[in-house]
Amino acid sequence: MKSALLALCLAPAVVAFTPSMLRVPTSIAARPVLSRSSAAVMPRVEPTRSVVKMDSTAAATESKGPAIDVGLGIYFFLWYLGNYYYNITNKLALKAAGGAAGFPMIISCLQLGVGVVYAAFLWAAPDARPTPKITLDDFKKMLPVGICAAGAHAGSVFALGAGAVSFAQIVKSAEPAFAAVIGTLVYGSTISKAKWLALIPVIGGVTLASCKELDFAWSALIAAAIANCFAAFKGQENKKLIDSAGIKDRIGSIGNQFALTTIIAFMASVPLAVVKEGSRFGEFCEVFKTNPAVKLNLILSGLWFYGYNELATMTMKKTSAVTQSVANTAKRVIVIVGVAIVMGESLDPLKLIGCGIGIGGVFLYSVIDSLLKKKD
Hints:
- By secondary structure, the chain is mostly helical.
- It is 76% helix and 1% strand.
- It has helices at residues 2-9, 26-29, 45-63, 70-96, 104-124, 136-162, 165-172, 175-185, 193-211, 218-242, 247-251, 254-277, 281-290, 292-317, 321-343, 349-375, and strands spanning 33-34, 41-42.
- A two-stranded antiparallel sheet has the order 1-2.
């Protein structure tokens, strides 16, 4: 991992350079030279050749594309790395604490709490990150986004604890189907027929992958579906929030927006954890103290979760819609296959085929409208 990160950081940036200062001026190249024996004008050939050579070099240089954005490449790398290790450390923490029968809601809540501590540190540290200047009304407008974020995170954590990571990720890849239905029925959004048709392989792929899932659990399926519902509501509420006049300026940055969302999500998760597992909190504290695997992986998963989500938001802001679709598709493939190998989860051929169809359908759903517009 360290060597890969070092190699990426040392990757040379390709910068287009036009050696205009090295060109020989045309007036000098075409200047006539007088012979000693006569006054005949003889043009010199060598400078002309060098001009042609230099001009062709400049043209070749100018034909090169724009410089590679190394910073964006690092964003992508760290986003994928964070998502990958979050899934592993999250699963290890849940497994060490007893899985679905353990303390998934408390772990989910405390992971958000780790993010809150990290965000507060960045605001308190000198010259790290300016604090947001939001009003009480702004905070109220952010409540739906934060509450939905809490629900999406809790559902995902419970799904990962109840079943295989790969299975939960495959079900979560069907999020566009939930977003389409909720956006249309609740928020009055309009979706093209092409997008509706693109949902067929998404749902079909998830169904096919579930047929041969050795670690299948109804609780994991239901929890992942609930997470998708909350994520769909969160997306719609986030659009409404950003459209509010002046709120982006008062929040200040993408990092601040995610930090505030995390704080609200943590506040919303505390009552949920108390209702669901509050009576066993003393038991959890004992497990946390005596089991290093729970303590270490809970803290690490909280940091990975906060870090990769903030990096993902930054990356998305710097890329086009098609690039985002490709990036999300590649991320899910890497996480599903990579985590399954590391955790020793089943990779049945039918499951992989269903996974490929489902994720391919998600990518098609993301780009189908753009493709049809280009043809028109």
